[in-house]
């Protein structure tokens, strides 16, 4: 794949921006950015949250109009007034929020807004044929008659990509496409990307993951504060360079020093637990005071589900949970939180935060029954404000305005609001489920520091993560999950990338 | 010239900011005050405004209950029949006890009120069970119970108004004054204050906002979401039932046909006051203002001799206007924050 890519780097320029600027009231999101995309390349856009990546691709896709600057397509100046205009030229974007209607079938979604017709009526037969033709061409094994809501996240993304092929495609924009994919699905997507570039399609690709840049990127454009910092060849740039370009400062290491303290008493012991929905089967694990235990595995391997079951937000069919030496099987979140066990969910938008409420209320949510948030049955607003302000300082919330509603913070700072919740009580055990999803590198380093800091204070930490480096660098011990089972327990020198990966796909793969 | 234009620009910016911050209600209130004082000279008199207050009491009480349902992301369409059922059951119980024991006036009033409130609140208990424990959508649940409640009220009375309550009931709770304030207004004020303390000074109040803001996050933070939802509909029904009893005292009869306009008017009062239909957003004091605003508009239209049928048109239009204004506000909010 790599050789295909380098050979096509010299392709013609498909899409180019000249001094594109976008102003929003009070802020300049893009400042005179030059960007060009050549046929057959994967051009990675890289930058922290809020650097202007999303604004740039929205302009390229016709969803947002620039304040000034020009846009050229195949050497001709164009102005895109809508997503529809861009589609006409063969420019399609797959955003993180998929624009699919879950109640409709794959084929209905594919041709939504451009339904094949005969006279005034829908031509269902032709619709089915054309849908099948597109899916076959892309080698997607998806039934055109399947309901989109029943598909996996990866399959839905494939449908979204297939939608781009309704007309002749020349530019495909992918916005963090792997954020919610398993590594198998990611490989599938990368194969597709390779095929598309071989056909001369140019791809604009946004990602936060360094490994992906190396794997599929041809060139990288780094954005910071709305300006283009540099455009580089993916092959001749090191990770450190990229981080430095992106943050504008030297970030020695993303990961803090591993904790070496000896672990204390067992805090959580799960014995042969099976969930009622079958996502976890007879899994056992142990977590001790002052250690960080990593849970690795593919999405759906049961690593999150096991912790949810122990926390009481998922029903248990069999097995036992012991917390602090007492049996707590079947205790709900309320009791567990009072006993000092907190689980922070992976999806802050749908499970973690009240987006329309102030940061203060979001932080305080799990501790309204204790001081300084309340005394007896009465809330104590002043104590609450003071406590939350202190916690905002500790997690370095930007901007430091605790009365702002959460949806007005950037993704990384939203995550910090949720993390601050772990400071509101004296928790003995905290489970972080994918704590750095969709978070820029600077914030990520801060989050790692935060987690390690808690462990140093003898809190027992469970780190559920699909990001392998996270598991390898932070945890003292790790369990690898596969299809609802604990496949392996690794520690010390045995905790290596090879060892974890070998267990990702079950014993047969070893 | 350019100075004037700059000043205009500043005023426009100020208005836009005020709109984003405060919502549509202050503008509507101001417009209503100006329009109705121009249309009728009797409008802006202290006597008339006291009248508005007295007439708006019932809607205010129902609206603060409706607000709870909206906060948690639902709504209650059965508030009208809760009002009617409370009225009918309360009046029948009071009349029966009074007929059996004519000397025990205050006993009959107390038991009658309790019976009415209990009957109305029962509708809320059923609503709460359906919504919280069987996951029935609030729309279907309260729509169904609206029919059930209305049917029971009609069945109990045969469609005929209930008479025979002690005269002291109407004299005290309908037309009377207590410490110089009309009793219904006093009752409403007490309820509003109590709910204010509950919503903003106890953790339980925060729970309503949390369940509406993000039910899953609330549950993972140890909040009893089912219990909160259940309590929402019980409290909402309780408030509507109290309004029903007060209205019965005012009318001096128990009637199954009162309260039909309450679902629309109470939701309108909340939405005009900036309560989000998506849940999680809204302030109690604004809802009280919203209810008073609707009372003000109705009073103003009466003084201006606008036909009652046309008044319905105006009210529906106002509700839709408020929702549109809310959408525009969200859009402005988005541009201001970027």
Explain what this protein looks like in three dimensions.
The complex is a heterodimer of chains A (about 500) and B (about 350). With about 500 residues, chain A is an alpha/beta fold. A six-stranded mixed beta sheet of chain A has the order 6-9-10-3-11-12, sandwiched between helices. In chain A, a hairpin with a 2-residue loop joins β7 (about 115-120) and β8. In chain A, α14 (about 380-395) crosses α15 (about 410-420). The longest helix of chain A is centred in the middle third of the chain and has 16 residues, at about 185-200. Chain A is globular. The longest helix of chain B has 30 residues, at about 310-335. The radius of gyration of chain B is 21 Å and the shape is globular. The mean pLDDT of chain B is about 90. At the A-B interface, α11, α12, α13 and β20 of A face α9, α10 and α14 of B.
Task: Give a quick rundown of the structure.
Chain A has 510 residues and is an alpha/beta fold.
Task: List the defining traits of the structure above.
heterodimer, A: alpha/beta, 18 helices, 24 strands, globular, B: 338 residues, mainly alpha, 2 strands
Following the backbone from N to C, one meets helices and strands of chain B in this order, namely: HHHHHHHEEHHHHHHH
Q: Treating each run of at least 4 consecutive H or I residues as one helix, how many helices of chain B?
A: 14
Detail the poorly predicted runs of chain A. 1-9
Helix proportion of chain A: 25-40%
Number of helices of chain A: 18
**Which word captures the global form of chain B?**
globular
Strand residue content of chain A? 25-35%
Structural class of chain A: alpha/beta
Strand arrangement, major sheet of chain B: 1-2
Give the spatial strand order of the biggest sheet of chain A: 6-9-10-3-11-12
Major β-sheet profile of chain A: 6 strands, mixed
Number of strands of chain B: 2
Percent of residues in helices of chain B comes to over 70%
Counting DSSP E segments of at least 2 residues, the number of strands of chain A comes to 24
Mean pLDDT of chain B: 92
């Amino acid at each position: 794949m790599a050789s295909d890519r380098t050979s096509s780097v010299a392709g013609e320029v498909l899409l180019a921006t000249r001094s594109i600027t976008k102003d929003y009231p009070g802020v300049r999101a893009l400042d005179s950015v030059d960007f060009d995309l050549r046929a057959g390349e994967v051009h990675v856009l890289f930058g922290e949250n809020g650097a202007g990546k999303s604004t740039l691709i929205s302009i390229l896709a016709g969803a947002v109009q620039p304040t000034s600057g020009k846009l050229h397509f195949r050497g001709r100046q164009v102005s895109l007034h809508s997503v529809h205009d861009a589609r006409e030229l063969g420019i399609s974007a797959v955003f993180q929020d998929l624009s699919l209607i879950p109640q409709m079938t794959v084929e209905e979604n594919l041709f939504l807004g451009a339904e094949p017709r005969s006279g005034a009526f829908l031509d269902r037969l032709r619709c089915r044929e054309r849908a099948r033709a597109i899916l076959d061409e892309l080698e997607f094994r998806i039934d055109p008659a399947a309901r989109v809501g029943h598909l996996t996240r990866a399959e839905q993304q494939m449908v979204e990509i297939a939608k781009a092929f309704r007309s002749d495609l020349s530019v495909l924009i992918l916005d963090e496409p792997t954020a919610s994919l398993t590594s198998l699905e990611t490989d599938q997507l990368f194969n597709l990307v390779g095929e598309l570039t071989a056909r001369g399609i140019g791809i604009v690709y946004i990602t936060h993951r360094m490994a992906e840049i190396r794997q599929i990127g041809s060139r990288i454009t780094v954005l910071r504060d709305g300006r283009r910092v540099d455009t580089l060849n993916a092959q001749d740039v090191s990770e450190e360079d990229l981080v430095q370009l992106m943050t504008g400062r030297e970030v020695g290491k993303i990961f803090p020093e591993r904790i070496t303290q000896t672990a204390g008493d067992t805090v959580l012991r799960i014995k042969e637990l099976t969930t009622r929905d079958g996502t976890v089967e007879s899994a056992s694990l142990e977590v001790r005071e002052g250690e960080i235990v990593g849970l690795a595995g593919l999405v759906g391997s049961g690593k999150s589900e096991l912790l949810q079951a122990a926390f009481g937000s998922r029903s248990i069919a069999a097995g036992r949970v012991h917390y602090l030496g007492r049996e707590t099987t079947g205790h709900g979140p309320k009791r567990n939180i009072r006993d000092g066990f907190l689980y922070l969910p992976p999806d802050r938008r749908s499970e973690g935060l009240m987006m329309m409420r102030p940061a203060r209320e979001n932080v305080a949510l799990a501790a309204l029954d204790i001081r300084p948030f309340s005394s007896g049955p009465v809330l104590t607003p002043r104590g609450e404000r003071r406590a939350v302000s202190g916690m905002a300082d500790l997690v370095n919330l930007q901007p430091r305005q605790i009365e702002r509603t959460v949806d007005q913070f950037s993704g990384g700072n939203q995550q910090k609001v949720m993390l601050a919740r772990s400071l509101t009580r004296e928790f003995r055990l905290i489970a972080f489920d994918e704590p750095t999803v969709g978070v820029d590198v600077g914030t990520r380093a801060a989050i790692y520091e935060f987690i390690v800091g808690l462990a140093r204070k003898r809190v027992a930490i469970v780190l559920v993560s699909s990001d392998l480096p996270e598991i390898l660098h932070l945890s003292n011990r790790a369990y690898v999950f596969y299809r609802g089972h604990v496949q392996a327990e690794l520690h010390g020198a045995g905790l290596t990338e090879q060892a974890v990966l070998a267990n990702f796909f079950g014993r047969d793969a070893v | 010239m350019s100075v004037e234009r700059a000043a205009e620009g500043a005023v426009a910016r100020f208005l836009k900011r005020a709109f984003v911050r405060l919502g549509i209600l202050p503008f509507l209130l101001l417009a209503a005050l100006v329009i109705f004082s121009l249309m009728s000279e009797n409008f802006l008199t202290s006597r008339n405004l006291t009248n508005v207050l007295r007439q708006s009491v019932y809607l205010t009480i129902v609206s603060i209950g409706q607000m709870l349902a909206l906060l948690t992301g639902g709504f209650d369409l059965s508030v009208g029949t809760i009002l009617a059922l409370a009225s009918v059951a309360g009046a029948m119980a009071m009349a029966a006890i009074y007929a059996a024991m004519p000397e025990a006036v205050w006993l009959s009033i107390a038991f009658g009120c309790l019976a009415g409130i209990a009957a109305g609140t029962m509708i809320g208990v059923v609503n709460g069970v359906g919504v919280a424990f069987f996951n029935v959508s609030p729309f279907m649940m309260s729509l169904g119970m609206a029919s059930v409640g209305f049917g029971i009220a009609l069945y109990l009375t045969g469609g005929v108004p209930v008479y025979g309550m002690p005269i002291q009931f109407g004299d005290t709770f309908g037309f009377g004054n207590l410490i110089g304030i009309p009793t219904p207004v006093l009752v409403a004020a007490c309820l509003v204050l109590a709910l204010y303390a509950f919503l903003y000074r106890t953790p339980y109040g925060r729970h309503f906002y949390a369940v509406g803001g993000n039910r899953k996050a609330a549950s993972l933070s140890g909040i009893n979401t089912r219990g909160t939802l259940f309590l929402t509909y019980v409290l909402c029904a309780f408030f509507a039932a109290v309004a029903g009893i007060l209205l019965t005292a005012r009318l001096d009869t128990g009637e199954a046909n009162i309260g039909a306009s309450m679902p629309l008017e109470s939701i309108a009062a909340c939405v005009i006051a900036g309560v989000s239909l998506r849940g999680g957003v809204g302030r109690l004091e604004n809802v009280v203002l919203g209810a008073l605003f609707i009372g003000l508009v109705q009073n103003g239209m009466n003084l201006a001799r606008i036909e009652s049928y046309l008044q319905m048109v105006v009210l529906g239009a106002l509700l839709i206007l408020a929702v549109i204004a809310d959408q525009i506000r969200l859009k402005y909010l988005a541009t201001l924050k970027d």
